[in-house]
Amino acid sequence: MSAKLFEPLTIRGVTLPNRVVIPPMCMYCAEDGHATAFHRTHYGKFAFGGAGLVFVEATGVTRAGRITNGCLGIYDEDHIDSLAPIAQQIGEMGAKSCLQLAHAGRKASTQRAWQGNGPLTQENIDAGDERWTVIAPSAVPFSEGWEMPRAMTRADMDEVIEAFVIGAERALAAGFDMVEIHMAHGYLLQSFLTPLANQRTDEYGGSLENRIRFPLEVALAVRAALPEDVPLFARISATDWIEGGWEPEDSVVLARLLKRAGVDVVDCSSGGNMLHGATNASLQRGPAYQAHFAKMLREEVEVMTQAVGLIRTPELAEQLLQDGTADLIAIGRQALFDPFWAHHAAERLGVTNWDAWPPQYGWWLSKWKRGLASMDEAPLD
Ligand SMILES: Cc1cc2nc3c(=O)[nH]c(=O)nc-3n(C[C@H](O)[C@H](O)[C@H](O)COP(=O)(O)O)c2cc1C
What distance in angstroms lies between residue 58's CA and the mean position of ligand 1's atoms? Predict the structure, then answer.
């Protein structure tokens, strides 16, 4: 038996042991950008659970670029110290690590997910949260009642580029194997891309080429700062799912330019410019509902892609690799439910490799699974 899901993949100088990826997922419990004991356990356990690549959540390259008061940051040199044990723990468990570098733009200064994901309320502020001025390509708020952003000047843009570059350098200093630039979900870089948020009249707004210019400048600068053997991912929203917004064919143009700029993998998500929970006619969520975008970019641009979004079963993950949809498969919420998803998937696909398990577990579980030991038997020590 063999399964593509458990074949290694080499990207530049890094070999992932398999194609199972834990995508970036904000945990909203950092302290002034610093990772805590929760983060170390949280991320370490996915590597323990057999994933080949573990992403660390959206990490603000500036303090104002955090989504919430509880988001991770990499805007101070001393953030390196709290991130380093996470990268180390992931590596020691045999997986590779990727830090997602992010700037939340006009969706910054908001509530943690469990507080509602909306603009901060007086109650949140009374409870200790800080509110700050947000920046965006244009002075257009995300939605009614959200912070009115300040339209960015060229100086702001230079600062953001430098912050992404410094963030990438700090991520490597913390021991991460690679970084991803967050260009999706309505955050700063995606809000340059989409005409729904970008109403600039200079060379960064208007035509598709102009709207792509700033995110591309960020990608070029980050690539230039990374050693040749370090992979670079970019997460994009392949479509806004909104008429008059960013369209899948725009993503083809973007992916082509990103590839030329030295981005190795396009991580294909979608949406982010609609209020949380809102929906419209063109968006039908179902198993692997975004994966066809990954396939389109892989075929048309010949770039490696990562598929994500409602991929829950090993069979579906394997099928997406077999049919050439993507090179990597990200398992988000299902892995929160089952952090050992990758090991369990290998068993379901008939390719269990006990050497990939932590030996502390594997020596016993392998005997039990091969019928050489029984759970009813009393273990001796
Ligand atoms: C709790 C939570 C936090 C998330 N945070 C991020 C994030 O930091 N960056 C990002 O690009 N996507 C984020 N996402 C989106 C996920 O990476 C993923 O694309 C999405 O959950 C769909 O995959 P799934 O259906 O396998 O969960 C988050 C999703 C969840 C559930």
Answer: 10
